[in-house]
Amino acid sequence: MPTFGLNQFVFLLQGAVWTIILSILALGIGAVAAFIVALCRISANPVIKYVSSVYVLVIQGTPLMVLMLICYFGFNLYGIDVPALVGATIAMTLYVSAFLGEVWRGCLESIPRTQWEASDCLGHSRVQRMRYVVLPQAIKISIPPTVTFMVQIVKNTSLASIIGFVELTQAGKLVNNSTFQPFICFVIVAAIYFAICYPLSIWGKILERKYNVGHR
Amino acid sequence: MSAIAESTSTQPVVELKGVHKSFGALKVLEGLDLAIGFGEVVALLGRSGSGKSTALRCINGLERIEQGSIEVCGHRVDQMYADMKPLRRDVGIVFQSYNLFPHLTVEENITISPRIVKKSSKKEATDIASSALAKVGLLEKRDNYPEQLSGGQQQRVAIARALAMQPKVMLFDEVTSALDPELTGEVLRAMEQLAKDGMTMIAVTHEIGFARRVADRVIFMHKGRICEMGPASIIDNPQTSEMRQFLDHDLK
Fold it and tell me: Which of B178, B194, B223, B241 lies 20 to 30 Å from B122, alpha-carbon distance?
């Protein structure tokens, strides 16, 4: 039986690369979806507003792991062969769109009503109001919670192991299956997660401090 | 000024007819009629809750009216809630809380609207900003951010920002109420200069002295209606008990 060595460690690192790839995909595509969700949530149109709030409630009320299973096996059920990475990316995108969308909605709504009004009164269109007045201020407020949320994204990619996607956690399981050294194996897995997340946490803290200064 | 206003005001610039507005069960405007001519300076006085600020906000469509009609510079405000942009190009407003854009410099605050709404060139917009800032005496603050200015200076920038859109009517919503007494003077002087330049102005104000000095017409509102209206001299000789009471309180 192999014991935990360099080969196993390299295998874990390969898993970590997939964790990072999945995280980037989830954040990249999820951020676009989250922005759309945030805009829908503050829409003046009551139908759009209602539908988007139901969407957020449903996604937020569903465990991410269940989302993973639905997105992976759901497609396969209809004969559409979806690779694990695609299924996991779709599930992560849904998850990010609902949670980050709500965070960003809060950031948009935290811009005082009077700023929106001042923009309206100068004849700006709705797009211009968003682009030139609201977003520049809201983005500043959103950076710290967004970076903090990125840590959640990285950690939650571990749930993709349930659909057999060989990211860091699944790689750890596979290594453990062959070495039967669960303690050392999963401590190293945890250490790699920490190595990815810690810089993000620190970055979030720095940004929080930076943007709180002078914040009204 | 009133002589000029009368001679040119064939068509009122701002006209309200039977305007009703309520917030839930609270009736704020109850059949407000008002016509303001070109170049006229009108001071709206009244207790808080008398509907004067609401009247002003209805004029540029910030509040929807339930009954009646409002016409401003040829725009039917009550019919155009879908697209207010043409109206907003003709009407400038200055708020009690300045509402400058904190992420933009003084100059950017002023140039942004000519740039994006009127598609002015950068040079044109900068020139407009310079002359607007010069008018309110703040040319040297062009590169500062709003938070680096005093309240009075911010309010003057807000006036310049509205002026840069070259509006036909300027609305002032208690623009000195948030300022220390020593800072109100500079803002009032800027407004006075604007009145001298012939701007059509409607000012909701608590500054009785300003109303007396600058206004062609003083309107005292009470319970959502015009209670008393006339030349500035009515301040010294109010006819209704409500206005008398209001002025007695105010001047104490």
Answer: B194
User: Are residues A125 and B60, on separate chains, in Cβ contact within 8 Å?
Assistant: no
What's the whole-model pTM score?
0.88
Distance (Å) from the C-alpha of residue B157 to the closest C-alpha of chain A? 13
Domains and CATH numbers, chain A: 6-215 (1.10.3720.10)
| Pair of tokens at residue A177 | 């299956």
Angle at B125 between CA B124 and CA B128, to 5 degrees: 90
What is the share, in percent, of chain B residues with pLDDT greater than 90? 86
* Distance, CA of B26 to CA of B36 (rounded, Å): 27
Q: State the complex-level ipTM.
A: 0.90
Which among A122, A128, A211, A213 is the top mutation candidate for probing chain B, defined by the most B β-carbons within 10 Å of its own β-carbon?
A122
Segment (H or E) for A171: helix A168-179
Please classify residue A209 by burial: count the beta carbons closer than 10 Å to its beta carbon, then call 0-12 exposed, 13-18 middle and 19+ buried. exposed
Beta carbons of B116 and A132 less than 8 Å apart? yes
